[in-house]
Design brief:
By secondary structure, this protein is of the alpha+beta class. It is built from four helices and six strands. It is globular and about 35 Å long. This is DUF6950 domain-containing protein.
Length: 140
């Protein structure tokens, strides 16, 4: 699984319609959002085994135990190369305080809420808490 040559345009096109889409377990949560971003950049869904398998927080945790490696970070470790969060580049997957999203240079895009607005939120890199990151590979 490698980024397509036009991965940045594909990622931007993926993000745009999601700006105001509210959080929904199994449909538009941190895992499906990040997996969708990877699919947009590479053409490959990295988490197909989870699609349609849960609709609640408890269901998500059960799916990670049953289909993944027990938790989200360990499951991502099995699918992507872990990199120091300080080296995360635009398009890489980043987890901050358990919230999974996509690096967009100086910040992270994730599904959440700010005030009354739901949809994609921006978290500045300086505010990432206990960050972890995974590289979405480039083609050669």
């Amino acid at each position: 699984m490698h980024r397509c040559p036009d991965w940045d345009a594909r990622l931007a096109a993926y993000l745009e319609p999601l700006r105001l889409r509210p959080f929904a377990w199994g449909k538009h949560d941190c895992c499906t959002f990040a997996a969708g971003a990877v699919e947009a950049m590479t053409g490959v869904d990295p988490m197909p085994e989870f699609r349609g398998r849960y609709s609640t927080a408890i269901g998500s945790a059960r799916a990670l135990r049953r289909l993944g490696r027990g938790d989200l970070a360990s499951t991502l470790d099995g699918k992507f190369e872990a990199v120091p969060a300080a080296l995360a580049q635009r398009g890489d997957i980043v987890m901050s305080s358990g919230l999974l999203g996509i690096c967009w240079g100086p910040f992270l895009f994730a599904v959440g809420s700010e005030g009354d607005r739901e949809g994609l939120i921006r978290i500045e890199r300086a505010k990432w808490m206990e960050p972890r990151a995974w590289r979405v590979a480039y083609g050669f």
